Input
Amino acid sequence: MTTALTVNGKRVAVTSTPDTPLLYVLRDELALNGAKYGCGAGQCGACTVLCDGRALRSCFVPVRTLAGRSITTIEGLRGPKGGLHRLQKAFLDQQAAQCGYCTAGMIMGAAALLREKPRPTEEDVRTALSANLCRCGTHNRIVHAVLRAAEAQHG
Amino acid sequence: MIRPSRRSVLGGSISLLFGWPAIAAETGGGAAPALPSDLAAAPEIDRWLRLSADGRVTLRTGKVELGQGVLTAYAQLCAEELDIHVSRIDVIAGDTRVCPRQGMTVGSFSIPEGGKAIRMVSAEMRQILIRLAAEKLSVPTAALDVRDGMVRTRDGRSVAYGSLAGGQTVQRRATGAVLPKARPRRVVGTSVARLDLPAKVRGAPAFLQDYRPVGMLHARMVRPPSAGARLLAVEIAPARAMPDVVTVVRDGDFLAVVAEREWSAVKAAAQLASDARWDTPPPLPADPIAWLKDAATQDTVIASTGTPPSAGTRLVRRSYSRPYLLHGSIGPSCAVAHFDGTALHLCTSSQGPFELAAVIAKLVGLPVDRVTAQHMQGAGCYGHNGADDATADAALIAMRLPGRPIRVQWSRQDEHRFEPFGAPMLIETEAHLDDRGNIMFWDYALRSPTHNARPVFGVGNLLAAPTLAQPTARPKTNNFGGPPAYAADRNAIPSYVFPGLRVTTRFVPESPVRTSSLRSLGAHGNVFAIESMMDECALAAGVDPLAYRLRHATDPRAQAVMQRACDAIDWSHPRPADRGCGMAYARYKNYAAYCAIAIEVEIREGEPVLVRATLAADAGEIVNPDGLRNQLEGGLLQSLSWARHEAVRFDGAGVASRDWRDYPILTIGEAPPVEVILIDRPDQPSLGAGEASQGPASAAFANAVARACGARVRNLPIDRAAIAAARVRA
Output
């Protein structure tokens, strides 16, 4: 039995059992490493991807519930000319990581925010990313990177 | 770039043997200077540096990247001394097969000690290359200059490093005679971007968790409800019969499932857990600090001068505590082990791959030369977390399934419940003040279980070891440390000058749960206590806390960081009611980086809200200012998370802090803006700074809360309930 999904613009039929959380499908079947296992309960945000443009915690959502949906992982983020997305660039410019394990989830959470709110205030960013945990204390750099990326979008 | 090592790096080298007399003899001056400790242990230059024909340099180091940016700093030091661009350097780190052994990546030693070695070996390599160039170009070495790996004569001829020795190994030992040059710095002191971040923002494989060798199987552990519980009975058949399951491993109380797919392993582990019956070990203390107060101790006076004044002084007597804390890595521990029937290879995010390989050899009963390890980055560990234990788990399982790489991934719940916790601490202290309020005598005693129970101190320190059918008992714990760095008593001797003092370590050898190294060890609790006490003494003396500290600190570098952090936060500016500023200072380990922090807090409807923070640090010569800022600010925010929210809680069933809902940490919404001020001293040795902000941040927060609401919280964490209780007392 397969489940049909669109992942990073490509249609795929995945063979993982229907109860498999999306995260395990992405990592183990599709070899997409960006989304990370952190808690398995949607508490930390390390596994965040986009589902039809909105942030989704991939670690506990069974793949069968996502049939026909369009999933974007950090590997699928692109800038207008095919290079790095402005969020990825901004995270590098701000050196907004220490260990970097939460980074992909942070960027995907921020991508969902910018899609919904292209000109967020600092407060908006802090609120939106409060459900994404960082243990290294890179909190402020992450916020600045997201604000910088939002500016770049309109710059 | 940072790349995993490949055996091919070793292949095809031609040895470059030198007929020259030793450089030390040539330079004509006496005995060769001592090598830095890391280089003395592995003095062969080719252990550290290799040069390819295209001019790329491979730097090998036994230290590992933990998210602290150390490999980028090392590439800078190497680039500086070799006069090449950082982008020409590849770094291989923590591979026991090819890297020099440098000891564990701990204790803020990587830059002061490891960095010195890399700098020196690179300087020696440069001198060898210059000599080769001089021979080739028939000019004296003094007539040569290097720019980005190109050796040039004054008349415009040049030869590239790669064509001088590319592809060959330099079989010489470092002499210690070639000192890093006192010339203008090109790379050191600049904010080179982290070498490992581009892969991480793209989602490219960058972590151990992303490593999937061909034929790999997924294993999941099945843990008891509480550490120390014995497995009474387990029915294996139902889990074994599930799809994809390859086997169930039971060795005494060590229980795991192995499956072809990860999710199948997760499901089978849940099945197996429901089919296992465990006994009930003794309950854990509901109030760990009350337990600590009554625990048996081994007492050592670590500092003593003068005697307490008999009369004429005012006495301030207080006690402070911090609870059990989690390392709380965002990525639960993971490891991949592969036994090929003869040798065992470990992929690990351990802080000490060399040490761990040797310990695991003992655990699985292999000769030490048949166990190798390779570091791969994990999520930040902040000390001795579950990484070593997960590696041992993977090794034990791999030994039963030769030929298949075994990946063990701990669950979030297991990481929370079974990682070695940061030790709780209880500090009892009193200060005798003279009539001007100055401290005449300081009496300080700390109680704490161990902050250092790494596997290097005994196989039994691995989580699995005591649970096997042939168990290795946990070794007796010890307060490994001693002067000057200490362990539980790190920073227990205050960074101030008092006419008399006594500092006593009351080491608690037994803890109901396992504890080990958490970033800064005892320095966090000790600085929290000392710096809270300094504020309480200042209050008793009626003196401003900054002025009070400046009175008792004689080191101008200490005074400078305090003044700068306080200036940046407008220390003397009046604040509205419910707002207050607090500060704290410490020199990490009393010999590493100087760090002062000021924090402004508002008490909003009973909750402490972090308004802003300023930090000033002096870490001697700065290798990478942005990297240093990131580490210092990161440590500050992590410490605020500890102080604001964190305590491991126990209930009748064991560890009750099972996930992030039970054990919240500081969110992005709660983090205050932080201004970091660096005082660079290029003429001074680099000082370890990666743990310098842990102590001062928690103390500055406590002091700010006290100033904002007049209520002093002495037992961490400082949350709404603690403040409400302190207000009732006040």
Residues 3-76 of chain A form a domain with the Ubiquitin-like (UB roll) fold (CATH 3.10.20.30).
